[in-house]
Amino acid sequence: MKLPEILSGPLVRRVEPSQINLWLATSKTFKLEAEILIVEEDEDTFQYTSFKTKTSVESVKLGANLYIHLLTIYPVDDKFPVNQLLAYNIFFIGQKKKSDLASFDLLSTSNPHAIVYPGLEYPTFFINDQEETELLYGSCRKPHSSGYDALAGADAALEEKYSNLQKRPSSLFLVGDQIYADDVAHPLSLFIYKLGRALMGKKEPLHHLDSRLMKEPFRTARKQINGRQFMMKSFAKFTSTNASNHLIEFGEYAAMYLLTFGPELWDLAEKHGVFRPFHEVIKSDNFYFYFTEEQEKEYEKEKNKQEAIYQEQLKNVYTFKQNLFRVRRLLANTPTYMIFDDHDITDDWNLTIDWKKDVRNSPLGRHVIANGLAAYWAFQGLGNEPEMFDSSFKQTITTHLTSLSVTNKSYERWIEMLWEFNDWQFVAPTSPIALFLDTRTMRAYDPEPKPTKVGAIIEENIRPPQLINAHGFKKAKQALIKSGWKKHSPLTIISATPLYGIELIETFLHNYIYPLRIVGLSVQTMLDFEAWKYNSKGVHAFHNFLFDIDPSVCYILSGDVHYASSVTSDITNQAGEQIKIYQFTSSPLHNESFHGIWGTLMKKITKLNAAKRKQTIHRYCDSNWKLKVTDSTNRCPEKFYWREEINYQIMNNGAMVKTDNNVGQLHLGDQSVQNALLTYYGVHHHVTYYPKLSLFNKKK
């Protein structure tokens, strides 16, 4: 497989006046340099002035044909200017020649894969330090979902206003599920397996982890479409119901990132049959069926069902591919910060303490989680805050990936390091400063049982987790202090899961669906009972954290739930102290999922919510850490930890939530904030607005 020299990127990552970080993936080693230029607009043209810099490049070899590079560019004489349009170029220095981004035809607008906007010669960005700012945020991008990719719409919108720094987004926050490792499209799976091997140069000896993988049908099924569900459930102890093509090897995770970030490898994908029809896949014996042809009746039913799935996914993947040039251009022109959620690794990741123990005790499950985390570090984490990862961390990863052995001491060090690492959360130097929380590896699991009643059946149930434990909040506070953030300053907090969901939805699930576990239904893994409110101690800990750090204004940005919403909350503790939260949720970027029985149910609930205009809810946390809603019969007692008034905002189209693919556009002003949702329809984009909200600012 002949790979292009540039596999993905460039991406603009962490930027601040003292440094600029650019990320790039290549199939061969390069000596790299970068140039920063100041851009001035003169009527209808742009003038470029070179800025004196020095470049430090960290190049990491992850496979025989896979290198990632993080270019950190420092100003020589002064800091980089803020609120000023800046441009960049990257130079590739080989043994015989020096080339740049133009050499790869990335700076010519005649090339559909170009990363520049019309009228500009280079990709651009700016470093914002104003209180008034625009930013983009969202989560959940799955290639084979229906509809158009909202990130492509963000690029189309940016194309119209790239030179207007008052309206141009200064940052993009990707708040979880940037890839779907568990839910991989049938048409993509075989190419991902092949591409993964091509990137790494060899395969992982997985049979040393579980000898059953060498036996039939597993030996063959692992290489076929639809062949991995049983292995992931029974051998790896995963709980995803869509694991039939689950990523396993590190190269497969890398391949998925490369295919999701941009269009560079899609011509190669097409050559290798990604868009071939179902009957050709069957003819070449590349599809795994549960029933054999001898079981004629069952086999035909299964084949017809799988053909319908395949054809639908084929159509959706093709639509996704068509707009990836826009996604690549957006990422090349917007400082981007990313944090994981479960699908970046696997569905239900660390859902319960039993889930975590079962997977860790499975050699295959433990291995796949480590591969997912290593890939997250390489493709997402490294660019967020490079100083977080020391030389020992990087050396441990590269030593293992060089050998890919699973029987030596370096492998055990690699596994242990990634399972125990707890510094994934970080602070982004945006305006205002943004704290990205790790709600996956810093969880607390309550040991005490929860009594549950369904009809005449009474049983003790497990409790949903606290999404961040005490140590996690302590580290978050330390990260804020280290960043220079001060109390009584504005703060943005990124929590992949919203602190406030839609109350009617969450209450219905909690009171009527979750108890069905005791009659044998796996509702915990079917519906992801991971909202903050499902563990009231966790909500209490979050509120205590806010009162402790005491921001003047607190914004929370979230995703995960596959609907968008806008919520405010006024919280008062027993001491009379107050915090006001503005929470904005954008989900999904590309994974419309309100369909089937659960989707229909939730849509009806949200319509009921909006019809009743139940926009305001009062609740409190009692002395037993239970969350209770107040009404005419249930009033807040004298003894409570805190009480709050939650207000759900209605969009200008009369809806409370949006379930179409969308990306959040947030305008932060010194006196007000306004959330909007951008959707894309292939030829045009549309913006739906929530009301402008006046800010409650504490005096500094």
Q: Span between N and C termini?
A: 60 Å
User: Could you name the ranges where pLDDT drops below 50 across 5 or more consecutive residues?
Assistant: 512-528
- Binned, the helix content reads 25-40%
Strand order of the largest sheet: 13-14-17-18-20-19-23-21-22
Major sheet characteristics: 9 strands, mixed
* Strand runs, count: 27
Structural class: alpha+beta
InterPro entries: PhoD-like_sf
Protein name: PhoD-like phosphatase metallophosphatase domain-containing protein
Q: Which key features would you list for this structure?
A:
PhoD-like_sf; 7-stranded mixed sheet; alpha+beta; 27 strands; PhoD-like phosphatase metallophosphatase domain-containing protein; 18 helices; globular; 700 residues
Describe the structure.
The structure is a single chain. This protein is of the alpha+beta class. Among the domains are: 186-322, no CATH class; 426-694, no CATH class. 30% of the residues lie in helices and 24% in strands. The strands form five sheets. Strands 13-14-17-18-20-19-23-21-22 form a nine-stranded mixed β-sheet, with helices on one face. Strands 10, 11, 12, 24, 25, 26 and 27 form a seven-stranded mixed β-sheet that branches. Strand 3 and strand 4 form a beta hairpin. Helix 2 packs across helix 5 (250-261). The longest helix has 27 residues, at 296-322. The radius of gyration is 25 Å and the shape is globular. Mean pLDDT is 91; it is low at 512-528.
